[in-house]
Amino acid sequence: MRICVRILRDASNGFLPAAGAAIFRWAPPASRFMSTTPSLTPLPLFDPRLVPVRAESSTLPPVPRDRLSAEALRQRFQHPPPWQPEVRQEPRFADRAPAAAAVLVPLVERPGGLTVLLTERTTNLSTHSGQVAFPGGKVDPEDADVTAAALREAREEVDLRPEFTEVIGQLPVYVTGTQFIVTPVVALVRPGFVLHLNPSEVAQAFEVPLAFLMDPAHHRRHRLEWDGHAREWYSMPYIDAAQASVGSGETPRGAPEGVEHFIWGATAGMLRNLYRFLSA
Question: Which contiguous run of DSSP H or E holds residue 268?
């Protein structure tokens, strides 16, 4: 039986890496960076939550807990094992020149274990509005390097100050469908920071346990087909009763029924690569 997906909203406005809303070409773990430029295939309007799940990854093991401590991550980035990222380049769906970009992958050192600090973009933005994201964006000419760009963007978006961060490494470059060449910069974050969200860009900030995201039982692969074309991407929906709020470095309790954060696209793809790195 053919499954039809109701088309609802625009996912083709363009995907800045911070938006976390991109579609990628599926490739096996041994995939390598594509040197050729993919042909342009515009995306239709769609709601990613309604696109059928093609496969789940429950047969893969979670990253062992002893690899998810701050010290274990420091050692892993200092002495990386042989491994291959799973998702490196999306099919191109915007006609624009390539642009360097960087995102910060902030791992907050909480008593119960590391968490990943993510943001939800405001709904008034012209692109990828309301979507889950890492802090990040384009590399500016005044940025010394991608690390400086990622730290600057985190400061501008949520006021995460560099003195609370310890950069421990980078993940492989990830190319979005709008030709943003994204470097994920991974950093440990010391508790005690105070967030002040930029209201023009960020609607809210929240934290997700790293252990949850590093368990493939929570990874789902979607497939969208239209007019002879197909796109696939990961999602990692997370329901949480705790959310970070403006003016607080801690995470106060939210509504008892919890809030779903639909993590998908570029953000989920980079998290999937982090899983492959930590599980290698």
Answer: helix 265-279
The pTM of this model reads 0.79
CA separation (Å) from 45 to 9, 17, 127?
Answer: 5, 19, 13
Give the span between the Cα atoms of 213 and 88, in whole angstroms.
Answer: 19
* CA–CA separation, 210 and 207 (whole Å): 9
Q: Which of 218, 205, 120 is nearest to 160 (CA)?
A: 205
Are the CB atoms for 48 and 20 separated by under 8 Å?
no
Cα 16 to Cα 132: distance, rounded to the nearest angstrom: 12
| 147-to-51, 153, 244, 258 alpha-carbon distances in Å | 35, 10, 24, 34
Structure confidence by residue, pLDDT tens digits, 248-275: 454 544 444 678 899 988 999 999 999 9
Give 97's contacts (C-beta < 8 A, 6+ positions apart). 179
Instruction: Say how many Å lie between the first and final Cα of the chain, rounded.
Output: 38
Tokens of 55: 């496969």
CA distance to 16, 73, 77, 189, per residue, from 169 (Å)? 21, 9, 6, 13
52 vs 3: CA distance, rounded Å: 8
pLDDT in tens, 163-200: 999 999 999 999 987 788 999 999 999 999 999 999 98
